[in-house]
Amino acid sequence: MSETINIRELNELVSSKSDFVNLVTKGMDQTIVGQKHLIDSLLIALLSNGHVLLEGVPGLAKTLAIKTLSQIVDAKYSRIQFTPDLLPADVIGTMVYSAQKEQFQVKRGPVFANFVLADEINRAPAKVQSALLEAMQERQVTIGSKTFPLDDPFLVMATQNPIEQEGTYPLPEAQVDRFLLKVIIGYPTKEEEKVIIRQNISREQKEIKALLKPEEIIEAQKIVEQIYLDEKIERYIVDIVFATRFPNEYNLNDLSSIISFGGSPRASISLAKASRAYAFLRGRGYVIPEDVRAVCHDVLRHRIGLTYEAEANNITADEIISEILDKVEVP
User: Fold this and answer.
1) Most buried residue, 27, 45, 158, 168, by CB count within 10 Å?
2) 122 and 270 both lie in a single domain
3) Residue 175: pLDDT band by 50, 70, 90 thresholds?
4) Half-sphere CA count of 202, side-chain side, radius 13 A
């Protein structure tokens, strides 16, 4: 009985605190046309205290989306353009000698912000990418012998262009795994594109107003952590991830030759976190199987390794995930 009361209380708490979701969505809609999935993904990552990897051709409002979100939340925003000559110090900062004080002082890099856009992350070498790893995973940065905690909330949105691969450095699996979601951005519809043209050729620029404070996001993150995740949903999440590792056990024998490695335990954790955030966006205090299915592709597509056979037959991770979702029993 107490469980029922708790869920009722959670529902009331979530519905009273999730009002800001509509505020953010309306604010984003002022500058971004369409791209509902992109906006939802950014909110899921923000509420789950995770990071997003966006893949899409240039000009699909990826940069504009995170910049707009930072203005709405009234938080500090920084953009790092990744290039082959970038150094770790350009990202995290370095020690600079002060002649006046006759000592070294820390000069903080652009990673010290609430919202960090890592633009074209695959253009920089591994040394720079690994400098970002500590910031993403440990929420801290080490410069010299000193370690500095990063401010909350902290969201890294990295972008990569899927078309031009010349002069790029593929992200290692260990780093890709640090991203809660990998989101594929598609083209707008014809109607949306007409609106985009109108907005961009009209002279008036809409001013984006701050509608929230970073503290409200931190409070919402704490509520998301309380969202009820039933044992049956937990089992469903584990089954989905285990099906990527041992497809034969789930009557998915045809997948064993096209999956080189499955999702790690971080995949299960990310699926649970993202499902909770998705339930929060829908104003619910508990997770249902539809929440898990809604975020599953974004959470798992960068965590499944494809064999040469899969690549030769143009089989994508998304197709594998869809087949797993069709086979794994829904609670």
Assistant:
1) 158
2) no
3) confident
4) 10
Looking at the structure, tell me whether residues 197 and 234 fall in a common domain: no
Residue among 89, 82, 81, 123 nearest 106 (CA)? 89
Q: Distances in Å between the alpha carbon of 145 and those of 41, 98, 111, 150, 234?
A: 36, 17, 18, 16, 41
pTM, entire model: 0.87
Same domain, 288 and 175: no
What average pLDDT does range 11-31 have in this prediction?
A: 77
How far is the CA of 231 from the CAs of 153, 228, 238, in angstroms? Answer: 29, 10, 10
For 286, list phi and psi in degrees, rounded to 5: -145, 155
The closest of 294, 270, 271 to 282, measured between CA atoms, is: 294
Pick from 260, 268, 255: which is nearest to 295 by CA? 268
Domains of the chain: total: 2
Structural tokens at position 200: 């961009």
Contact 121, 159 (CB under 8 A): yes
- As a whole-number percent, the residues of the chain with pLDDT over 90 amount to 22
Examine the domain organization and report whether 321 and 176 are in the same domain.
Answer: no
